[in-house]
TrEMBL record, chain A:
It is an enzyme of class 2 (transferase). It catalyses: ATP + protein L-histidine = ADP + protein N-phospho-L-histidine. Residues 223-453 form the Histidine kinase domain. This is histidine kinase. The chain crosses the membrane at residues 156-174. Residues 170-214 form a coiled coil. Residues 476-592 form the Response regulatory domain. SUPFAM superfamilies: ATPase domain of HSP90 chaperone/DNA topoisomerase II/histidine kinase (SSF55874), CheY-like (SSF52172), Homodimeric domain of signal transducing histidine kinase (SSF47384). Pfam families: CHASE8 (PF17152), HATPase_c (PF02518), HisKA (PF00512), Response_reg (PF00072). Its EC number is 2.7.13.3. The modification 4-aspartylphosphate is found at residue 526. It comes from the Bacteria. Keywords: Coiled coil, Kinase, Membrane, Phosphoprotein, Transferase, Transmembrane, Transmembrane helix.
From TrEMBL, chain B:
It comes from the Bacteria. This is DUF4154 domain-containing protein. Residues 1-32 form the signal peptide. Keywords: Signal. InterPro entries: YfiR/HmsC-like (IPR025293). The keyword Signal applies.
Length: 594, 178
C-alpha cells in the first residue's frame, strides 16, 4: 500500500510541475503576445501617421491655393493603398474638401476632427494638421482598414503555435515521466514477485527433497523388514517347534534351562517382529485392516491402559470432542500410534507432567492444504492430538523427528521407530500429521484421519481370537513360497497340524500341482513371487480352474498385488509374516471352515 | 470663399457638393470683385510659407516679415484682415504700403500691380524678394484669372533663382504652366 501512495504522490508532483510549467509558458506566451500586439499597434499608428503626413504634404499647396483637382488627385493616390479605408481632407476652416472611402467602409467625418492618432478596433485613425512652415493650411483624416482575421492569426499564429507545442511537449514529458515511474514501480513489483517465487520454489524443492528422502528410507526399511520377517518367521517357528517337540521335564534342570533359553529367544524374536512391523508401517507397506472407528471410545479405553502403564508421575487426561465423526483406519495401528506417542511423551517428561489426549472434528481448508509440503486432501477429518508438557524439541530435531532410527534417547533406550510408525500409518491412511513443539514448552502431535461417512454402525469390537486348542485338519494345502527355509518351516507347521502339504516355489509350479491334485482344498501363497506371477495372479488362475478353492495369502509387506492402498480387498484372507504356530493354525482353520 | 456658401444640408454628398461648386464659383467670382482681392490677399501670405528663404533672409526669430504693396493698394483692409495673427514660423507678417520699391527696403514679398512694375522689380533684383505681379508680366509669381474667374498663378523659376529663392515643389505643383 505504502509504495503505491508514494508513487501516487510522485505522479501528483510531476503532474503539478507540468501544470505550473505549462501555466508559466502560457503566461510568457501571453505577455510576449501582448508585447508584440502593442508593438504592432504602435507600428501601425506610425505607418498611418506617415501616410497622413505624405497626404498632408501632397495637399498642402493645393489646400493653400484652393486647387480642388490636385487635392482630389492626392486623395485618390493615397487611397490606392488598399490598407487605407477612408481619407478626408479639410481646409483650414474645417470644411471637407475631398473624401474617399472603400466600399462599405464608413467615410471621413464631415467636419475636421481634432488632431489625434490612435489605434481603433476598426483600424488606425489619424487626424493631423497640414502645416507649411508653421502655417496651418487644413487637416487630413485617414483611417486604415481593420486587420483581417487571417492577418491577426498569421501575426500571432507562430507564437501561439510555439506556445501550444511547448505546452504539449510539457504534457508529453510529464506523461512520459509518469509512465517511466509506473514502469519502474512495475519492475520493482516484478522483482519482488520473482524473489517470492524463488523462495517458494526453494521451499517446494526442500519439500520434494524431504519426501524423496522419506520415500527412499521407506524403500530401504521396507526391503530390510521384509527379509527380516521371513527370517523371523523361521526363527520363531523353529523355537516353537523346539518347545513342542521337547516338552519341559519337571525336575530336570537341563530341560528347565533349555526352556528358559528358548523362551528368551522367542521373546527376542517377537520384539524383533514388532520392530519390523514398525518399519513396515513407516514404509507404508503395512497391510492395514481399516474399520470404522469411534475414536472417543477407543481413546477412553487407551487412556485406562496408559494410566496404568505410564506411571504415577504422568497424569493422563482426555478431552473428547462431542459428536466426533467416525474414521476409517486400522485400529491396531492407530492404537499403536497413540501408544508410541504416549511413550514419547513420557520420555519427554522424566519428572512427570500432563499428557492430554484430545479428539475433535476438523476441517482442512484449501489454504492450509496448499501450505503443506506433503500431499493431503482438503476436507473433513477426525483430529487426535497428544500433548505433553515435556522438554519439547528444537527446530532441527523437529525436522528429523519422523525419520526412522532418529532418536534423542540414549542408546538402547529408543528404537527411533515410534514416530516413524505414526507417520507411516497416518500417511498410509490418507491422513495428515502435524507436530508442534517448542523447547521447554512441550509437544503437541496432531493426527488427522479422514472422516468416514458410511452408515454409522457401531464399530465392531475386536474379538481376541482364542488360542488354537484343537485347530487341526487333514485337508490338502498347496503351499507356494519362494523362500526355501520359510517354505520348509511353514510346511512343517502345517504337517504338524495334520494337513497334507504340497510345496511349490512359484506360480506355474503351483498351477501344475493343482492340475495333478484335484483334492487341494486351500491355496496358501506368498504375495510376492518370482517366475512372472504374483500371489494374486496365481490365486485368480487357480480359482478359475477350481472355483471352490479357498485362498490364504501371506506377506511380509504388500505392494499392489492384493492390497490396494494398504487395505485388504473384501473377502481376501491374509496372514502377516512373521506368524506363530497358533496364529497359523487358527487362520488356516478359519479359512477352510468358511 | 465660394465653398462656404454651399448649403450645409448638401455637403453630405460629395458629388452633389462638387456639382453645386461648379455652378456657383463662376457666378460669385465674376460678379463679386472683392472676392478676387480677398483670395489674392490670402495667397500673398501663404506664398511665404512655400519659399525656402536663404539663411538669414527672414531675420531673427520674432522679426516680422515685410509684405510690401508697391503703388496703388487694391486690397484695402482685406489684406490686413487676412494677415491678422498670421505667422510664418516665428515670424509675424507685416504689411507695408510703398510708393516706390527701393533696394534695401527689407521687403520679402513685393506685390506690384499693372504695368508700372518694371522699376520696382529692377529695384529688388538679386535680393531675396518674392516678387508677385498682377498683370503686365515679370516677377517670380504672376497672378492670373482663369476663364471661370478663379484666381491662379504661374511661376518663373529663373526669376526666383535670380533672387536666390528656391520655391517649394508643392507651390510649383499648383501653379499654372506659363
Amino acid at each position: 500500500m505504502k509504495p503505491d501512495i508514494v508513487r501516487f504522490s510522485n505522479e501528483m508532483r510531476q503532474f503539478g510541475l507540468a501544470v505550473v510549467s505549462a501555466i508559466a509558458v502560457l503566461l510568457a506566451g501571453g505577455l510576449l503576445g501582448a508585447k508584440t500586439e502593442e508593438a504592432y499597434r504602435q507600428r501601425s499608428v506610425e505607418q498611418a501617421k506617415v501616410q497622413a503626413d505624405i497626404l498632408a504634404a501632397g495637399v498642402a499647396g493645393a489646400l493653400a491655393f484652393d486647387d480642388q483637382k490636385t487635392v482630389g488627385e492626392n486623395v485618390a493616390a493615397i487611397r490606392r493603398n488598399p490598407q487605407i479605408a477612408a481619407v478626408g481632407v479639410y481646409d483650414v476652416t474645417g470644411v471637407l474638401k475631398a473624401r474617399s472611402a472603400a466600399s462599405g467602409a464608413t467615410g471621413p467625418p464631415d467636419r475636421a476632427p481634432p488632431s489625434s492618432a490612435r489605434f481603433h478596433r476598426n483600424g488606425v485613425v489619424v487626424a493631423s494638421p497640414v502645416i507649411q512652415q508653421g502655417v496651418r493650411l487644413g487637416e487630413v483624416y485617414l483611417r486604415t482598414a481593420p486587420e483581417t482575421l487571417s492577418d491577426t492569426l498569421r501575426r500571432h499564429g507562430g507564437l501561439a503555435l510555439l506556445v501550444i507545442m511547448a505546452v504539449m511537449a510539457l504534457a508529453l514529458l510529464a506523461r512520459n515521466t509518469a509512465e517511466l515511474q509506473r514502469r519502474s514501480a512495475a519492475l520493482e513489483d516484478a522483482n519482488l514477485r520473482l524473489l517470492r517465487e524463488m523462495d517458494e520454489k526453494a521451499r517446494a524443492e526442500e519439500a520434494l527433497r524431504q519426501s524423496q528422502k522419506m520415500e527412499a528410507l521407506g524403500q530401504l526399511t521396507g526391503g530390510v523388514a521384509h527379509d527380516f520377517n521371513n527370517l523371523l518367521t523361521v526363527i520363531m517357528g523353529g523355537l516353537e517347534t523346539i518347545g513342542r517337540a521337547a516338552p519341559p521335564q519337571v525336575g530336570d534342570p537341563t530341560s528347565a534351562r533349555l526352556h528358559r533359553a528358548r523362551d528368551m529367544a522367542l521373546q527376542a524374536a517377537q520384539r524383533a517382529a514388532t520392530l519390523t512391523s514398525r518399519l513396515l508401517a513407516f514404509a507404508r507397506r503395512q497391510p492395514l485392516e481399516p474399520r470404522a472407528i469411534d475414536v472417543n471410545r477407543m481413546v477412553s479405553g487407551l487412556a485406562e491402559l496408559m494410566r496404568s502403564t505410564l506411571g504415577e508421575a504422568v497424569q493422563v487426561e482426555t478431552v473428547l470432542g462431542a459428536g466426533t465423526w467416525l474414521t476409517l483406519a486400522d485400529i491396531g495401528q492407530l492404537e499403536s500410534a497413540l501408544l508410541n506417542l504416549a511413550v514419547n511423551a513420557r520420555d519427554a517428561m522424566p519428572d512427570g507432567g500432563h499428557l492430554t489426549i484430545e479428539t475433535a472434528n476438523a476441517a482442512l481448508d484449501d489454504a492450509y492444504v496448499a501450505a503443506q509440503s506433503e500431499p493431503v486432501a482438503a476436507g473433513q477429518y477426525v483430529m487426535l492430538a497428544v500433548t505433553d508438557t515435556g522438554v519439547g524439541m528444537d527446530k532441527q530435531t523437529l525436522e528429523h523427528a519422523v525419520e526412522p532410527f532418529f532418536t534423542t534417547k540414549e542408546v538402547g533406550k529408543g528404537t527411533g521407530l515410534g514416530l516413524s510408525q505414526v507417520y507411516g500409518f497416518v500417511r498410509q491412511s490418507a491422513g495428515h500429521i502435524r507436530i508442534y513443539s517448542e523447547l521447554g514448552e512441550g509437544t503437541t502431535v496432531r493426527l488427522y484421519l479422514p472422516r468416514y461417512r458410511a452408515a454409522e454402525v457401531a464399530p465392531e469390537e475386536r474379538t481376541d481370537e482364542a488360542l488354537p486348542g484343537l485347530l487341526v485338519g487333514d485337508e490338502t494345502v498347496l503351499l507356494v513360497e519362494d523362500h526355501d527355509d520359510l517354505r520348509a518351516h511353514s510346511a512343517g507347521l502345517l504337517r504338524e497340524l495334520g494337513y497334507r502339504v504340497i510345496e511349490t516355489a512359484d506360480g506355474p509350479a503351483a498351477l501344475a500341482a493343482l492340475e495333478d491334485n484335484p483334492d487341494i482344498a486351500l491355496l496358501f501363497t506368498d504375495v510376492v513371487l518370482p517366475g512372472g506371477m504374483n500371489g494374486r495372479q496365481v490365486a485368480d488362475q487357480a480359482r478359475a480352474r477350481q472355483p471352490g478353492l479357498k485362498v490364504l495369502f501371506t506377506t511380509g509387506y504388500t505392494r499392489n498385488a492384493i492390497v490396494h492402498n494398504g487395505a485388504l480387498d473384501p473377502g481376501v484372507q491374509l496372514i502377516s509374516k512373521p506368524y506363530s504356530f497358533s496364529e497359523l493354525a487358527a487362520k488356516v482353520r478359519r479359512v477352510l471352515d468358511q | 470663399m465660394a465653398f462656404r456658401r454651399v448649403p450645409s444640408w448638401r455637403r453630405r454628398t460629395a458629388g452633389l457638393a462638387l456639382a453645386v461648386l461648379a455652378l456657383c464659383a463662376p457666378v460669385f467670382s465674376a460678379g463679386a470683385a472683392p472676392l478676387e482681392w480677398a483670395v489674392k490677399a490670402t495667397y500673398l501670405y501663404k506664398f511665404v510659407a512655400f519659399v525656402d528663404w536663404p539663411p538669414g533672409a527672414l531675420g531673427a526669430p520674432g522679426e516680422p516679415v515685410a509684405l510690401c504693396i508697391v503703388g496703388p493698394d487694391p486690397f484695402g483692409r482685406q489684406i490686413d484682415e487676412a494677415g491678422a495673427g498670421q505667422q510664418i514660423g516665428d515670424h509675424p507678417i507685416e504689411v507695408r504700403r510703398l510708393r516706390q520699391a527701393t533696394r534695401g527696403s527689407g521687403c520679402r514679398v513685393l506685390y506690384v500691380r499693372g504695368g508700372s512694375n518694371r522699376a520696382a522689380l529692377a529695384a529688388v533684383a538679386g535680393e531675396p524678394v518674392l516678387t508677385v505681379t498682377d498683370g503686365g508680366g515679370g516677377g517670380v509669381v504672376r497672378f492670373l484669372l482663369t476663364r471661370d474667374g478663379k484666381v491662379r498663378f504661374s511661376i518663373d523659376q529663373a526669376a526666383a533663382a535670380a533672387n536666390g529663392l528656391t520655391l517649394s515643389s508643392k507651390l510649383l505643383a499648383v501653379a499654372v504652366r506659363p
